[in-house]
Amino acid sequence: MTIRAVVKGVGHYLPERVVPNSEFEALVETSDEWIRSRSGIERRHFAAEGQTTADLGTRAAEAALADAGLSANDIDAIIVATSTADLTFPSCATMIQDGLGMTRGFAFDVQAVCAGFAFALTNANALIVSGQAQRVLVIGAEIFSRLMDWTDRGTCVLFGDGAGALVLEAQEGTGSKDDRGILSTDLNSDGRFKQILYVDGGTSTGTTGHLRMEGKEVFRHAIEKLAETAHRALDKAGLNAGDVDWIVPHQANIRIIEGTAKKMQVSMDRVVVTVQDHGNTSAASIPLALSVGKARGQLKPGDLIVTEAIGGGLAWGAVVLRW
Ligand code: UT7
Question: Which of 23, 219, 282 to mutate to test the pocket of ligand 1 (most atoms within 8 A of CB)?
């Protein structure tokens, strides 16, 4: 008997305020045309003053629980992928645990920046297949607007806020690649590249800091590393790119999404794309795209999905799952 971590529910939450590209034209020397053509982004959501990352995550988790037909106390563990926790501690995960009224189990954060959801899913899968948890709520929640330097046109136009969540449940599988649930994962990091994408604040400065990125350098690494990790994950599951029904990629830049799909020889009509509406929401982008992809009717039970993401660290990875 093989235990699989199967998706039982999915949901998301986006803050009300929608910010079109044109708003940045008054802030920095940029244009809607530049942002669209270089990144594919048309708009993004920004959290309201006073709204927290835990608030966003709690709303997404409630939606995923409702989709799963479960309540918070049916859950054994919460893992939150975030780089924008509201406080240094406690974790965003324990705040969401409280927000959901969940008084059992355990909760913790995972920090792997834009690749965070792949790392969180891998941890959740490990808890489930090792029998330490039956049901895990995996959340990506971010308020990247609070890390922006509003004078830096190379970064401030790219990011957005939001949250997405999955409920994973232990189910018996056959051990074959036809099982539903997570079939394989592949994680990577290389700290030699820590200076091309980072936030210049933290305990060492006593400030929250601002996001700094050498966009061209990150771009240079992205397509190759994403295609490689996706292929490795597929290979571990005994599958190949020809078996993929949907790529659900991290949504940083449409040119990276298209380049990765091309390298994998998967056509763009098999890719869930939300970057135009959300911008780059870091660890929230994959669960947001899964939730939107399901709502659009793109993702159907039994579909083979590969998710892939790269971000600060550099850290990158992929997860293969059958919906
Ligand atoms: O999720 C974490 C991972 N992050 C990413 O995946 C981001 C990866 N990088 C990218 O997506 C792209 O590199 C960017 C969208 C950030 C930039 O696109 P690019 O095609 O690499 O542009 P560039 O950085 O080479 O800049 C081209 C020009 C520069 O001007 P010069 O030096 O050629 O005169 C920039 O100063 O565009 C300029 N530029 C802008 N112009 C108008 C940079 N930002 C802007 C802007 N508006 N907002």
Answer: 219
